[in-house]
Amino acid sequence: MNPRIVITGVGLTSPLGNTLAEHRAALLAGTPKIGLLTPRYMEEWPAGICDFPVNKHQSRKDARRGTRAGQIAVYSGREALLDAGLDVAALDPSRVGVFIGITEHGNVETENEVAAIKEYDYDVKYWSHHHNPRSIANNPAGELTLNAGITGPHCTVGAACAAGNYGIVYGAQQLILGEVDYAVAGGVSEAIRTFGIFASFLSQNALARNPDPNRACRPFDRDRSGIVIAEGGCLYVLERRDDAKARGANIVAEILGWAVNSDATDFVLPNPVRQAEAMRLALHRAGLRPEDVDLINAHATATPEGDPRETRAIKSVFGDDCPAYVNATKGFIGHAMGAAAALELAGNLPAFDDGLVHPSVNIDNLDPECALPRLVVNETARADRPVRVILNNSFGMLGINSALVVGKGA
To answer: Which of 5, 114, 348, 393 could, after both became Cys, cross-link 255 (CB 3.0–4.6 A)?
Structure first.
């Protein structure tokens, strides 16, 4: 029998704050925090922007040498280790692993270098020698290992916007295999630092705009117009349940099951049939039925096609009378890409203890195609039964789907 895997630490930075308590408080209050950003070569756009103490765990020199994604990984990872009551120096560092989901990496660094050498008539002698370690795919996880003295395995998991879930899954799998005793796992994103991602979504007519940036991202609303791009990160400490109990750790939640699959149908448009299959498989692996789920965090990007397709997928698994509460987070912080799933899960974990379900905001006119009986709209709801099981959906381009089932820790 596989060992049970639990969460014992949470570290994050989001546009809403730099601790789980700050993040959660804004969600319960229904107060989004979207700023304005002017990407290179472009006009001003709404964006989810983080403001965290970069140098709390990292020297100024190391921060300058590294990347924004690395800064986010170092901050979130070190905060997660502190929350779990772990000191890497007191452990066998070869038994600690780092597994971080990302949507993309390296674009920011390459764009910056091209912009810099343009000022010197494209003379490549001005190209930074830091570019290669900054732009390699394993950079965010590698920066955390360097900072924390972790000598076990590390990698980044490239899984588009399903990556935050996938980082958690990969960490859990490494624990089950016995490769590590502690896994720092989740997702990070520096997406707002690259103009290319803004330009590409703009060319797809998929960027949201509103006179009030806090009203720009509108999941499930009839007048939704697209994505607000965000940065952020959330990393968890995972360990085997027996080990956590033996050291007297606080168990935040238990990883019950997961599934990752592929649409194999389109570069961009999601496939609700495959999404439903991922949810069903995750529940099957958790040994649960749809009616056992108390809360569903929807991926809900606020795109015209994405939201109704996910709604159809949810209904196909849970029925038209879906008994689970449903919420979405992107209206508060935007779409944090590789970090999205991990941040969105974190915002719901306290529901295991307080029974509160944060709302989906900016829904003035609910799209009938997105209507679900227990969609929590604009105001926090108090669940009418204990919240014991959460399903966390996260889907991405090229048809990658992830579903993670998490239970109340014990």
So the answer is: 5
Query: Which amino acid type is present at position 58?
Result: Q
Is 226 found in the same domain as 310? no
23 has catalytic annotation: no
User: Which of the residues 23, 335, 358, 370 is marked catalytic?
Assistant: 335
Q: What is the CATH number of the domain that holds 131?
A: 3.40.47.10
Instruction: Render 153-175 in DSSP notation, one character per residue.
Output: -EEEEE-GGGHHHHHHHHHHHHH
Q: Give the active site residue among 105, 299, 358, 370.
A: 299
Mean pLDDT of 30-54: 98
Amino acid 130: pLDDT:
96
- Are 325 and 375 within one domain? yes
Q: Considering the chain, what percentage of its residues have pLDDT values greater than 90?
A: 99
Return phi, psi of residue 273, to 5°: -65, -45
Give the angle subtended at the CA of 345 by the CAs of 79 and 318, to the nearest 5°. 165
161 is catalytic: yes
Q: Taking the model in full, what pTM does it have?
A: 0.97
Domain membership flag for residue 281: yes
On whether residue 251 sits in a domain, the answer given is: no
Residue ranges making up the domain that contains 82: 5-246
Closest CA to 327 of 348, 349, 303: 348
